[in-house]
């Protein structure tokens, strides 16, 4: 996050000379320490909103994972449990992703599917796709 | 040399193609066969992960080529099935609802 903000600061510097609209942007920049904190907190807020997958989604994902991997009912499944920790190899992950696609009626891309390692990530991805779908 | 990512993506595309069948029977069959086929491939995949054994590599290549051929077959047959969809729903599907 620090690298992001420094890059944005350096981007603003050349645009300072240009138009009047940039003056509005310039003002927060002059209070550099404050804007640093502000930028970070707004980014944090945004991250929080996008990260919060609904608990029902997480629950449904956990159910599907439990069923696919044939786990007993007492194995604790938190949102952070990794598939590999539960004894799933990459083919099991493929099956899980397929089952999730069918259940939630979404379509997961190849690249996204490779990155899913925990239940939370799967739930987040599902939420993302479910939101994008009605817009499309 | 076939790598793990290719095998995984072959598995996914086979599963996806198999899902398109309107007929319940062949849909389930395609799913079962790909997973079973890849489970045996899992043995060869493990061999690939340990990656010391050349003969396992050649088996993996064979299996991969076989999988590709089956993929073509599935795609072709899907088109035929889609042209003549079944008129009534299979009873197994009704129960799932």
UniProtKB/TrEMBL annotation, chain A:
Keyword field contains Cytoplasm: no
Cellular compartments annotated: Plastid, Chloroplast
Subcellular location, principal: plastid
Pathway: Lipid metabolism; fatty acid biosynthesis
Source taxon at top rank: Eukaryota
GO terms, molecular function: acyl carrier activity
A matching Pfam family: PP-binding
Transit peptide is among the record's keywords: yes
InterPro entries: ACP (IPR003231), ACP-like_sf (IPR036736), ACP_chloroplastic (IPR044813), PP-bd_ACP (IPR009081), Ppantetheine_attach_site (IPR006162)
One Gene Ontology CC term in the entry: chloroplast
Disordered: region residues: 1-21
Carrier domain ranges (all copies): 55-130
Keywords of this entry: Chloroplast, Fatty acid biosynthesis, Fatty acid metabolism, Lipid biosynthesis, Lipid metabolism, Phosphopantetheine, Phosphoprotein, Plastid, Transit peptide
Its biological purpose: Carrier of the growing fatty acid chain in fatty acid biosynthesis.
Family note: Belongs to the acyl carrier protein (ACP) family.
Protein name, per record: Acyl carrier protein
From TrEMBL, chain B:
Example GO biological process: iron-sulfur cluster assembly
InterPro entries, A to Z: Complex1_LYR_dom (IPR008011), Complex1_LYR_LYRM4 (IPR045297)
Complex 1 LYR protein domain: residues covered: 6-72
Chain coiled-coil ranges: none
Pfam families referenced in this protein's UniProt entry, alphabetically: Complex1_LYR
Name listed for the protein in its UniProt record: Complex 1 LYR protein domain-containing protein
Organism: Brassica oleracea var. oleracea
């Amino acid at each position: 996050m620090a690298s992001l903000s420094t890059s944005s600061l350096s981007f603003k510097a050349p645009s300072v000379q240009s138009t009047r609209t940039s003056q509005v942007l310039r003002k927060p920049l002059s209070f550099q320490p404050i804007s640093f904190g502000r930028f970070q907190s707004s980014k944090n807020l945004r991250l929080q909103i996008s990260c919060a997958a609904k608990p029902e989604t997480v629950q449904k994902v956990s159910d599907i994972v439990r069923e696919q991997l044939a786990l007993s009912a007492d194995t604790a499944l938190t949102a952070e449990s990794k598939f590999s920790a539960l004894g799933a190899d990459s083919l099991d992950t493929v099956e899980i992703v397929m089952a999730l696609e069918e259940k939630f009626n979404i379509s997961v891309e190849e690249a996204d599917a490779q990155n899913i390692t925990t239940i939370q990530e799967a739930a987040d991805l599902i939420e993302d796709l479910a939101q994008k779908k009605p817009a499309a | 040399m076939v790598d793990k990512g290719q095998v995984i993506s072959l598995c996914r595309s086979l599963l996806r193609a198999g899902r398109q069948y309107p007929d319940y029977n062949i849909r389930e069959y395609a799913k079962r066969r790909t997973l079973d086929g890849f489970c045996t491939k899992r043995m060869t995949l493990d061999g690939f992960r340990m990656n010391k054994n050349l003969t396992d590599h050649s088996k993996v290549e064979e299996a991969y080529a076989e999988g590709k051929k089956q993929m073509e077959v599935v795609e072709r047959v899907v088109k035929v099935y889609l042209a003549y969809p079944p008129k009534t729903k299979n009873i197994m599907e009704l129960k799932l609802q």
